[in-house]
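Colleagues,

For the teaching module next term, I've prepared a clean inverse folding example: a structure given as tokens, and then the sequence designed for it. I'd like students to try predicting residues themselves before seeing the answer, so please don't circulate the second half yet.
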């Protein structure tokens, strides 16, 4: 048997490997080479499609793609396999389109089926449509319901129930996550900022002050800094304390976070206005307070928000209902984004007064010099975490 054969269509002599097998032929091979066979089949198929009023893509011979390469039918280019994403549903384990074309194709499909990518993601993640999210945002007056400072841009939902709660800004949404949505810890963080917790009492009893003011020459580079350890220099440069001060705070707190008492204290916490060091915190509490702007009022609003006591439905003046999330109450749709300062301050004062009026809180407070009161150390929580 010859190693070559002539194709009846193209008239070229080609290796027998370029011909399909055909039992009806004397030599057991097709009359046409694979390339011409594909052209004949494509012509017949496309003729039938045209007769039915349908369109077909341009014919392409798959066997012409070199080993380790793949053809993208969208950009019509042969590229390396690494240019294609993974897809276990396909025989080659790769997506049909290259990565840029795949992204464009998915965006077009989402636009066609869901109206927009945002609408698709909102339905996928939260079970609401883009219109419902915009309606909720309008009812809030465009403001974040927790901090009353920044425009709301993120849908917040309960991770247990999956239900949408409200629209929040990036900081408040992230702050809830850093605190792991623990209402007790968030309330304790508010009291910690106002020096009303066991930590402030311990600081006053042991150090004579509830904060460490730090050295007045903080941030300066001196010969002493260069001779000390890198941590010594970093602490002095940033917080005005040295490593011995940090270890003293850590020892007073028994190595635990001054707020949650659950995790090891790893970060020095300081006031960004007075620059005074307040204590040592874990990463979650330190970051969570920062994202909630180190504001006791915002923290208390966040705690009430998680309890479902912040955002309520009240009757609207023109009929129906509207949202209410401040004391004193105001229709959020009537307040401009830069007009919330007064409402935020009055709301914070109201929630602080409610906190101080709680009988359980007043009974657990201990009077200190200067008529200052702080709550007792939550020993049961701390022991449970050890």
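(Answer key — instructors only)
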């Amino acid at each position: 048997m010859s190693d070559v054969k002539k194709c009846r269509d193209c008239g070229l002599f080609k290796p027998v490997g370029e011909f399909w097998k055909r039992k009806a032929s004397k030599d057991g091979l097709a009359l046409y080479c694979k390339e011409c066979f594909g052209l004949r089949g494509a012509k017949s198929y496309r003729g039938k499609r045209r007769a039915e009023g349908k369109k077909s893509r341009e014919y392409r011979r798959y066997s012409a793609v070199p080993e380790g390469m793949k053809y993208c039918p969208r950009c019509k280019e042969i590229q390396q396999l690494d240019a294609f994403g993974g897809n276990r549903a396909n025989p080659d384990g790769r997506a049909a389109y290259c990565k840029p074309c795949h992204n464009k194709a998915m965006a077009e499909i989402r636009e066609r089926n869901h109206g927009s990518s945002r609408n698709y993601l909102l339905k996928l993640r939260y079970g609401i449509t883009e219109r419902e999210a915009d309606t909720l945002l309008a009812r809030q007056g465009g403001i974040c319901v927790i901090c009353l400072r920044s425009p709301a841009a993120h849908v917040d939902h309960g991770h247990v129930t999956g239900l949408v709660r409200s629209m929040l800004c990036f900081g408040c949404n992230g702050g809830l996550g850093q605190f792991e949505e623990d209402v007790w810890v968030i309330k304790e963080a508010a009291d910690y900022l106002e020096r009303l917790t066991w930590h402030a009492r311990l600081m006053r009893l042991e150090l004579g002050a509830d904060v460490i003011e730090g050295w007045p020459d903080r941030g300066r580079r001196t010969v002493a800094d260069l001779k000390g350890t890198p941590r010594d220099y970093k602490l002095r440069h940033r917080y005005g304390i040295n490593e011995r001060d940090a270890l003293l705070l850590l020892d007073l707190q028994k190595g635990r976070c001054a707020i949650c008492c659950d995790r090891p204290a790893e970060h020095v916490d300081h006031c960004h206005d007075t620059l005074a060091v307040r204590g040592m915190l874990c990463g979650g509490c330190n970051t969570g307070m920062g994202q909630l702007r180190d504001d006791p009022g915002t923290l208390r609003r966040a705690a009430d928000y998680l309890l479902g006591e912040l955002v309520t439905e009240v009757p609207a003046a023109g009929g129906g209902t509207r949202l209410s999330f401040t004391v004193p109450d105001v229709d959020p749709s009537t307040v401009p984004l830069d007009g919330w300062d007064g409402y935020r301050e009055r709301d914070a004062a109201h929630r602080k007064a409610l906190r101080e009026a709680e009988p359980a809180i007043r009974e657990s407070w201990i009077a200190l010099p200067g008529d200052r009161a702080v709550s007792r150390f939550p020993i049961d929580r701390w022991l449970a975490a050890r």
